[in-house]
Design a protein that fits this description.
alpha+beta, 461 residues, elongated, 64% helix, single chain, 4 strands, 4-stranded antiparallel sheet, 11 helices
């Protein structure tokens, strides 16, 4: 009867341990408080459609850029590092899964013993042996299970981190590509203006030498020519540096980048659709990676909790061992051991580790909440930037057209002697600035749509 009572007490104590191990740790890991708003942009009605659902090639149809992006994804060193990181954590997940299964180890040996007494008599003893050991840990308190969850979450986080690197790379290459095109357009504008300035210098010289004007208009024309010519070397330097930047992203040494030569405005479909908040959180790879990191931290809390309780292990050993080679295979032996290991008194070390893991989880939770807030801010800033850039393109185009018309009028009035030569120089200077401002406005519009697409976690594949 007493033995039966003792067994009941042991079973009850074990049940309490199991219940504590399975329930106590998760209670300390509270879910993040996101409190997502009703819409991504305040005051805007949520829409299930989103520009991020488009493929990259559907958003910007530029075959040269597409090829450059593909080359970047294949050869960029950061992308390779992220890929190897995924493979590393995949193997570490296999390591964690192996804890579910028994381990089998073998050992073969031969010992050679030499004993010599005081009389000088020698005794040589050769003992061959062959041993095998089988060990298996029973996961009563979930240490192996939680370790496996942690490894899986870290692996999935690395997958999402690789996608985040991919998204960032494509955005960086696309941004640099359109900046390069804008520099090309600006250089073309400056060179065309430089030709006009040269013609103006020649005309002013003829008028001065013919006695029609003083030397002042001639010198003014030369000043404008020199000022415009000074812009060329700086632009050529920026172009070469931008090409080197793109080459580095593509994993290559500095080389010439083949790109589209156009100043036409691109059309972007569905740019006013930004989706609903829950889709934003689930679409962005950086947020998904942070969510997996949070799950890994929660699993580590479970591991730290389980380490405070006993571990149960069954060990089975067997083999062959004899004092000589003869009869070696006639001397088998086996050894079975049930082992219980439990921390008893470690000055609060395991409890402190558990509490520390809880605080790590809390840090990761706050980090995830902060990243969600930052994601909504990025989208809000991106949509405002895109809307503003679209308005600016229209205004800069109007300014360019008006400046061009102004140059034509000043030329006509100069021929009729209504205005001075300085007036046409001012008109030409304004037209040059207006052309450059319009080209930069187009660039800013392209960069804004890339930034918005990236902020929404667009489908780069």
């Amino acid at each position: 009867m007493k033995i039966l009572m003792i067994q009941y007490k042991i079973a009850a104590l074990l049940a309490v341990f199991l219940l504590a191990g399975s329930c106590a740790a998760p209670k300390r890991c509270m879910s993040p408080e996101l409190n997502l708003p009703e819409s991504v942009i305040a005051g805007k009605t949520a829409d299930s459609l989103c520009v991020a659902d488009l493929k990259w090639t559907e958003l910007i149809q530029d075959t040269l850029l597409t090829g450059l992006v593909q080359k970047t994804l294949e050869h960029n060193k950061d992308m390779m590092i992220a890929s190897d990181r995924v493979k590393e954590l995949e193997e570490l997940h296999r390591v964690a899964k192996s804890g579910w299964f028994p381990t089998l180890d073998g050992r073969g040996y031969i010992t050679h013993k030499l004993n010599q007494n005081a009389a000088g008599e020698k005794n040589i003893k050769v003992e061959p042996g062959l041993k095998a050991s089988l060990s298996w840990e029973m996961d009563f308190f979930g240490r192996i299970r939680q370790s496996n969850k942690s490894a899986m979450a870290k692996y999935l986080s690395s997958v999402e981190a690789q996608r985040a690197v991919q998204m960032t790379l494509i955005a960086s290459v696309s941004t640099a590509y359109f900046e390069l095109i804008a520099l090309d357009n600006e250089l073309d504008i400056v060179k065309r203006t430089l030709q006009t300035r040269e013609e103006s210098v020649n005309k002013a010289k003829l008028r001065f030498e013919g006695g029609l004007t003083t030397e002042i208009p001639y010198q003014q024309a030369q000043v404008e020519y020199a000022r415009t010519a000074s812009l060329v070397p700086e632009l050529e330097k920026k172009i070469q540096m931008k090409e080197s930047e793109i080459s580095l992203l593509a994993g290559e040494y500095p080389s010439e980048i083949v790109r589209t030569q156009t100043s036409e405005r691109l059309c972007f479909p569905m740019t006013d659709q930004i989706g609903i908040p829950s889709e934003l959180v689930s679409r962005r790879p950086d947020l998904r990676a942070a969510e997996q990191d949070l799950r890994a931290a929660a699993a580590e809390v479970g591991v730290a909790w389980a380490n405070r309780f006993p571990s149960f292990r069954i060990n089975l050993q067997g083999g062959l061992e004899n004092n000589g080679i003869e009869d070696f295979f006639r001397s088998p032996w086996t050894y079975v051991l049930g082992e219980v290991t439990s921390p008893i008194f470690h000055f609060g070390k395991y409890k402190a580790k558990y509490e520390a893991s809880v605080h790590v989880y809390e840090q990761q939770k706050h980090k995830y909440e902060k990243m969600v807030l930052e994601a909504f801010k990025e989208v809000n800033d991106a949509i405002v930037s895109y809307q503003t850039s679209c308005k600016k393109v229209v205004l800069m185009e109007n300014l360019k057209n008006a400046s061009e018309k102004y140059v034509e009028l000043t030329r006509f009035q100069l021929k009729n002697g209504v205005i001075n030569y300085i007036d046409i120089l001012d008109a030409q200077r304004s037209f040059l600035n207006a052309e450059i401002d319009y080209s930069n406005a187009l660039r800013d519009e392209y960069l804004a749509i890339i930034k918005l697409y990236k902020a929404l976690g667009g489908g780069w594949n």
